[in-house]
Hints:
Elements: E1 3-8, H1 16-29, E2 34-39, H2 41-44, H3 51-67, E3 75-79, H4 85-94, H5 99-103, H6 106-112, H7 120-135, E4 140-142, H8 148-165, E5 173-175, H9 210-219, H10 236-249, H11 253-259, H12 265-290, H13 294-322
Parallel strand pairs: 1-2, 2-3, 4-5
The structure holds ligand 1.
Ligand 1 is lined by residues 5-9, 17-18, 21-22, 40, 43, 129, 132-133, 141, 143-144, 146-147, 150, 182-183, 192-193.
Amino acid sequence: xxxxxxxxxxxxxxxxxxxxxxxKQFVELQDSNECIYCIVDMHSITVPQDPKILRKNIxxxxxxxxxxxxxxxxxxxxxxxxxxxxxxxxxxxMCNSYTGELSRMxxxxxxxxxxxxxxxxxxxxPILMAADILLYDTDVVPVGNDQKQHIEITRDIAERINNxxxxxxxxxxxxxxKAGARIMSLDDPTSKMSKSAENIHSRISLLDDSNKIKKxxxxxxxxxxxxxxxxxxxxxxxxxxxxxxxxxxxxxxNDIEKKYEGIGYGEFKKDLVSVVNDSISPIQKxxxxxxxxxxxxxxxxxGAERANAISEKTIKRVKDKFGLGL
Length: 326
Ligand code: TYM
């Protein structure tokens, strides 16, 4: 049995990119692996957060985890800041990483925009993520492919420490889905769908109502040749919609192309609205049932306890290797 770990930031607007790139894989993996899924609240404070909204968003993500089908009997589900080992290991890893490698992270470059007043946490963000993964002796990390660089630095740091101190960490592998590995923005299909983009029609959030979903899809940027064909280079908009259609319906892109041969984008988009709504509405129904239940808090408390038990063992092992403490 493999150990699987992944996390999602509680920053609101969890969208279909998060679902197809990550959450859907989480559910698929829980039947035949030992899975640990985290709500990474400490990552989210690398940018300013309103405490009340952050708390609400943490519970929203937890409820969405359950609503998409994660089962607390099969997976450990918990909030990152409830397990102190993440911050503890993070410091140790920080002392074994280089400012040069962190400066090369594209997410840091994008978010800091060269500013001298960017929070230090934004710079060391990948180290906390490495700590999340290595703390649980993780074999597999299911993520969207925007996280590739973060998985690579995690592997580099783990290998570096193993070489210096003897085998301390398992070297984890990323798991990226082909379809859905990168869902692009609906209004600008050359940039990834994001939780924070200003235009709400650039994304479909898992909690959007059906009218909003319809509007966002019908407005989605395509091109003027009217042919439903996958061509990322020349037709990024329609290719992104084909990706979404295929990932939700399970129909291959080839078969979808055939289905819409000689039929314009209007019809294709209308059907895509139904495909997306059919997948999302049961998730929303589950979400509404779970979100305000006492059970949700019990699941998170139990998850933190189980995660803590694993984390403490790793911290003890790492401290021994480094000669820290008594
Ligand atoms: P976050 O919260 O930005 O996103 C959660 C997951 O969704 C994936 N994702 C996407 N997949 C496809 N298309 C998109 N447009 C898209 N946007 C986001 C992300 O790849 C991710 O899998 N750093 C992570 C959180 C994290 C983590 C970890 C993940 C912290 N520690 C340890 C794995 C293991 C992040 O910001 O994800």
